[in-house]
Amino acid sequence: MFKKILIANRGEIACRVIKTARKMGIKTVAVYSDADRNALHVKMADEAVHIGPPPANQSYIVIDKIMDAIRQTGAEAVHPGYGFLSERRDFAAALEAEGVVFIGPPSPAIEAMGDKITSKKIAAEAGVSTVPGYMGLIADADEAVKISRDIGYPVMIKASAGGGGKGMRIAWNDAEAAEGFQSSKNEAAASFGDDRIFIEKFVTQPRHIEIQVLADKHGNCVYLHERECSIQRRNQKVIEEAPSPFLDEATRKAMGEQACALARAVGYTSAGTVEFIVDGNRNFYFLEMNTRLQVEHPVTELITGVDLVEQMIRVAAGEPLPFKQPDLKINGWAMESRLYAEDPYRNFLPSIGRLTRYRPPVEGRTLGGGIVRNDTGVYEGGEISMYYDPMIAKLCTWGPTRADAIEEMRLALDTFEVEGIGHNLPFCSAVMDHPRFVSGNITTAFIAEEYKEGFQGVTLSPTVLRRVVAAVAAMHRVAEIRRTRISGTMDNHTRRVGDDWVVTLQGEDHPVRVAADHEGSTVHFPDGTSLRVSSDWTPGDTLARLTVGGDPLVLKVGKVPMGFRIRVRGADLKVHVRSPRAAELARLMPEKLPPDTSKFLLCPMPGLVVKISVEEGQEVQEGQALATVEAMKMENILKAERKGMVKKINAAPGASLKVDDIIMEFE
């Protein structure tokens, strides 16, 4: 076994690999850029080597710098994580030439599966079900139209070297096929330096289901069942689960056996993932093979009990797999929510800055019998950098059934405290409560179909709302009792805490009566029903763990005048608790309107101004580009919402702006 390995990556995956290496008694080496000097993976590793400036193309993906770090530290093997150099054949070859073990597949397998056209041909030859399509070179738009007709609309036009949704178009007719072919070709050339295009049948009602495979150097290959990854936004996964709620045992077995057949066909060793598109009739078609560890691997680990990173290391060291296919059973259900530094209320724009509060839920067994796991690469006080992927953490839960895993995830998301940046915790919570998701009736179009206008927050159901009302009423009484016990008051000015209150939230008043005792409070509603509330919450705590009506409820709590800011199940609420007379007077108060910002172009995210596209005094038209702001390697073009005249420009290229900083003003 290796004595020392280097992790050619950063963030949560580097931390994840270090944990397993430590468990195996293997020393670890981290590499870091200037931006990651104080990163968590650097603190966790036994050694760390500086490899350059923040941009990845000057540090993490420069093969020579990684090779220098290996020579400095004497690392015997390298784990590439995912992204960066993980699927670069030349990196695996460079390690081999140096006599250093690559903890991953052989370089020819990486090369064969890295090209979409080649991989589909190999898959077809290996007996893997593939989408009907044309894999040869396509000369021009006319030929693209002819091929599309032969396949049958709709078709998907794809760049062979593509990824992340680039160089990809759906065509429903001849005109769209001709236009899509040229657009995909141009985009592929610009993004990948490779303009080869292929066309395949577009699968309607598609589900994205992938098979985890593991192969050793002794001819053994197994599949560790499937993961459902259909909850995606812009072709990026957000929620994953294992197993899939859609597959039956026969389909699962067929997909697993075909995935192993493909792995054997390319001489694959190590962990890998074969991705399939599955239609509404459970017909499945090969999509691609990822020759690395997947981001979502923890859900597979939770249902199989197999540490995939450990097995990757053992396979790389020449050990055989310690299990056979019949040993790999599915135990329970697992969910994963990807926590991103993206603001869901601003169309998921990147959010950077310091984590002023970062308190994930406690990992391990829960009171409900489930499991919580949080893979992360950040810490409270650390910064989310503009240079890298916006992922903060991967929150995973396990339960005996899918419903149990979802409920564990709801509570874990409610418990997760993140402040200082925008993040998608509310959106993940909204998905967990969405009836369509709960039913398992999902496709890759789920987010586009269910959130057509973007994420506008959550309106709580009447059942959850009533539980929140009862909880807040009981909490308010605790706070009022505390206020009556302030020392130094005059003896004849004793303050009595009333029993009747009006809780106002989501625009509605809820009269309640709170009957308290030593064990908690019973909150009575006007319709004659009541809810029992118990908790050890004290004023000032930012997290309230309560039992309401016999079931757990977790609230994130902030203070506002005459009430609380409550965040739960994706909703962000200002909750006021008043006496009946104060509530009556409050209804007479005029509503405070938000400031008018219609004459300003505001920066929608923290970022760098790349370009100002207009001048002072210039008339602009609706839809005209005004400025370009860059954050997390993404350029965002800000456009005019209507016709107007530029009065003043407040920012110049190179300026670093915060959210809502004024870029320009209009007359």
Quick structural gist:
Helices cover 28% and strands 32% of the residues.
How would you describe this protein?
The chain is an alpha+beta fold and 667 residues long. The protein is 28% helix and 32% strand. It is built from 17 helices and 40 strands. The strands form nine sheets. Strands 14-13-10-11-12-15-23-21-20 form a nine-stranded antiparallel β-sheet, with helices on both faces. Strands 25-26-27-28-29-30-31-32 form an eight-stranded antiparallel beta barrel, surrounded by four helices. The mean pLDDT is 93.
The quaternary organization reads as single chain
Widest sheet: strand ordering: 14-13-10-11-12-15-23-21-20
Largest sheet: number of strands, sense, barrel closure? 9 strands, antiparallel
SS strand fraction: 25-35%
List keywords for this structure.
single chain; nine-stranded antiparallel beta sheet; eight-stranded antiparallel β-barrel; alpha+beta
Walk me through the topology.
Blueprint lengths: L3 E4 L3 H13 L3 E7 L6 H5 L2 E6 L10 H11 L3 E3 L9 H10 L2 E2 L4 H8 L1 H10 L7 E2 L6 H11 L3 E5 L8 E4 L2 H19 L4 E5 L5 E9 L5 E13 L2 E7 L6 H17 L4 E9 L5 E7 L6 H8 L3 H9 L16 E8 L1 E2 L5 E2 L2 E2 L2 E3 L4 E2 L5 E6 L6 E2 L6 E9 L2 H14 L1 E3 L5 H9 L1 H5 L6 H5 L11 H23 L15 E6 L2 E10 L2 E5 L5 E6 L7 E6 L2 E10 L2 E6 L2 E8 L1 H7 L13 E3 L4 E6 L6 E2 L4 E7 L2 E6 L4 E6 L6 E2 L4 E5 L1
Parallel strand pairs: 1-2, 1-4, 2-3, 4-5
Antiparallel strand pairs: 6-9, 7-8, 7-9, 10-11, 10-13, 11-12, 12-15, 13-14, 15-23, 16-17, 18-22, 19-24, 20-21, 21-23, 25-26, 25-32, 26-27, 27-28, 28-29, 29-30, 30-31, 31-32, 33-40, 34-36, 34-39, 35-38, 36-37, 38-40
Helix pairs in contact: 4-5, 7-8, 12-13
